[in-house]
Every structure is written in structure tokens, then in C-alpha cells.
């Protein structure tokens, strides 16, 4: 493409091609539950998770 053609006709930019959609994966809350309760569901893990939650929400007032 010459410069004159670009000036007179313009330049066309093509968008990216869409990828074929894969099957929907099953979403579970298992990882989050393990994070909150700890591996054995102990009270200490629940307290620790509560502290983490409070710390994360401090700036949201």
C-alpha cells in the first residue's frame, strides 16, 4: 500500500478474531470454604478468616 492510497482511501484495521467458546466450567465454592474454615474446620481458622475479612473491609467505609 502506498502512502497516497492510504491518504486518499484511508487505512482499515481489522479486529481480533473471536476464539471458539469452550464449555462452561463448573464453579464451586469449595476453595473459598476451605480458605474460611481451614483444612479441618477449626475455630482458629474461622477466627483468622474473620480477622482477614475485617482487614480487607477497613477502607470500604
Report on this structure.
The chain has 3 helices and no strands. With 61 residues, the chain is mainly α. The chain starts with a helix and ends in a 5-residue tail after the last helix.
Secondary structure elements and pairings:
Elements: H1 3-9, H2 30-37, H3 43-56
The low-pLDDT segments are none
The rounded Rg comes to 26 Å
Q: Structural class, from helix and strand content?
A: mainly alpha
> What's the total helix number?
3
- Count of strand segments: 0
Q: What about the largest sheet?
A: none
In whole angstroms, how far apart are the ends? Answer: 57 Å
Helix content: 40-55%
What is the string of helix and strand elements?
A: HHH
| Cα shape | elongated
| Mean pLDDT across every amino acid position | 77
Percent range for β-strand residues: under 5%
Biased composition (Basic residues): 51-61
Region (Disordered): 39-61
Structure in a nutshell:
Residues 51-61 have a biased composition (Basic residues). With 61 residues, this protein is mainly alpha-helical.
Amino acid at each position: 500500500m502506498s502512502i497516497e492510497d492510504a491518504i486518499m482511501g484511508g487505512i482499515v484495521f481489522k479486529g481480533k478474531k473471536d476464539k471458539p467458546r469452550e464449555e462452561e466450567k463448573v464453579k464451586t465454592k469449595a476453595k473459598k470454604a476451605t480458605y474460611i474454615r481451614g483444612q479441618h474446620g477449626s475455630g482458629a481458622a474461622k477466627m483468622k478468616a474473620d480477622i482477614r475479612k475485617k482487614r480487607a473491609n477497613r477502607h470500604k467505609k
